[in-house]
Please model this.
Amino acid sequence: MSDVRLSRDNRRRLLTAHIAASVGWLGVAYAMLVMTITADRSADLATRQGAYALMSTLDLAAVLPLGLLALATGVILGVGTHWGLVKHWWVAVKLFLNLAALVIPMLTRHPALADALAAARAGLLTDPARQVLDASIASVVVLTTATVLSVYKPWGRTGAPI
Model:
């Protein structure tokens, strides 16, 4: 059991930051999915260029900071409250999902976005890399699942002390 507990006010501040970062991250994920679909269906090079350029910017300027903030505040809340970091299954699964939703898109979607943007700038109306769409869909599914876990808190305790 952790000896460190957050005060009520600090817990509320951190929880507010955690929810705001998580909701923002989910909102950006949905927006990225819409932009991916828009670029995929458009025959207009300017539309494709704009969508891919904005998605590439959002990956680094919004997805990464919001994901890191959600991760940091979630870890602090886990360690500083009765929920623990891996004491309950729903928290442990959310931690895993958060890490996956941060790392996998940066390794797959971001490089694929650079390729798709380069193709659009070169005037090629090629289909976007499948990784862009797949990673965008996966981000929405994973972050929505994390939201559902936060509400329902399923599965009980893991048996871990922290």
